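Lab notebook page, bench 4
Experiment: in silico fold of construct C2
Operator: M.H.
Input chain length: 67 residues
Purpose: comparison with the prior construct
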Amino acid sequence: MMTRKNFDAIANMLAGELACSTPAERWRVECIALSLADICAKDNPRFDRDKFYTTAGLHRYVPSSVL
């Protein structure tokens, strides 16, 4: 099972990729981040999707608690 430490490492790596990407690349990295969040949520029921998105730099997504 993946842990918070793993989730943080992945989110920080995605944030770095988003910071140095072009607009076209950013779209692709965002798609990958959303897919990874789905995988992480299936792996660990305590996965915090909202924290993952924030750490990864995906601020424009609506928190799941609002949906």
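Observations: Residues 23-43 form the longest helix (21 residues). The CA atoms of residues 10 and 36 lie 9 Å apart.
Next step: discuss at group meeting.
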